[in-house]
Amino acid sequence: MKMKILLELLFLAIVILPATTNAEDPTAAATTTNVTIAGGVLYSFTVQYADDGLLDFTSFGDNDVRVTGPSGFDTGAAFVSLHGINDGQGAIVTYSIVPPGGNWDSADNGNYTLMMQANAVFDSIGNPVKAGNIGSFTVTVTGPPPPTPTPAQPLNISTRMEVLTEDQRLIGGFIITGNVPKKVILRAIGPSLANFGITDPLVDPVLELHGSDGSLITMNDNWKDTEQSEIEASGFQPQNDLESAIISTLDPGNYTAVVSGKDGGTGIGLIEGYDLDQAADSQFGNISTRGFVETGTNVMIGGFILGGEDGNANVVVRALGPSLTAFGVSGALGDPTLELRDGNGVLVQSNDNWKETQQTEIEATGLQPSNDLESAVFEMLAPGAYTAVVAGKDDLTGVGLVEVYRTP
Questions:
Q1: What is the largest CA-CA distance in the chain?
Q2: Edge-to-edge strand order for the sheet containing 43-50?
Q3: What are the residue ranges spanned by the domains of the chain?
Q4: Whole-model pTM?
Q5: Rounded distance, CA 303 to CA 282, Å?
Q6: What is the CATH number of domain 27-139?
Q7: 51-89, pLDDT tens digit by residue?
Q8: Which residues of the chain have pLDDT under 50?
């Protein structure tokens, strides 16, 4: 009898005692600033997430939050950065959007609402943050809207892929066009990618910046070693001390950024470039990245943001492989495929062999690939974030090149 009573009491204790972790759904609250000054090509805000257990850091990404406003404005917010707090039970995440028309003006005045999306962010046992309103901001700008739209320009470039050695390092090229120098920041990201579900990140990236003649302009291993104050002032400091960053003011011309692993290390890395002086009479005219294209999650993923102006821009995106052999590249990707997606992940255009579609439009730009197996798309794009995905047809692997050009 005593044993039976003890068992019953033990059962009641198990049923009645509350769970100590992850009993509640995670929560989200936004911190915003009101807009009172015209201009501004990106609007950033932070969201603080909290949970009674652990958050799933791999669930954060683009379109966790949508921003709605006057005249039917409705856009997904782009993920910018994450900072974990409270031993994984909380996180402060920065997101950004491109304002209506590419920058703020009086036509955009009104109230804007931040809406958390359903089943976007989770805790470690799969509880989602509840969908709904998590914040708002107002726009009260004086003065007329810009009278004449001008084409948007590339403001940010990034490419994620496997970083190997020698010819299979991550190599990013860009051209600055215009009449005056352009201030930029370049970043090489590796360890912090583990927060986003990357299982084999580059542990210690090294970043080099080269001129058009191949000469080394500057290099960086760990971003706090040099220019720490200036990098932090830009707001683009890496999350991990082992990651690399360079701030430089560059004359119009051709440049190359090279990402490698320290002491021959390999892994998934990310190269990024940001325009820090959007008012200057110069811009990113062309961006490209070369590296080893694998399969699955290790395909080449290139991102770019158009902004700075409120008009649409004509853009050509190319995926090259076979023609790289003529430039001494061994193991070139035999047959690349290309997808162009918008900031919501929606497919804008895809192509396998460039002559199959849009041959006339692409040839008119003078940017047609030299090999029929290479890929290209021509699109008129509104300001916003876009992604170009390069893979090998039928799971081919090899060294590939993705390029983005803004054309007249």
A1: 93
A2: 27-31, 43-50, 90-97, 78-85
A3: 27-139, 153-407
A4: 0.54
A5: 20
A6: 2.60.40
A7: 988 888 888 888 999 999 999 999 999 887 777 676 767
A8: 1-20, 148, 150-152, 154-156
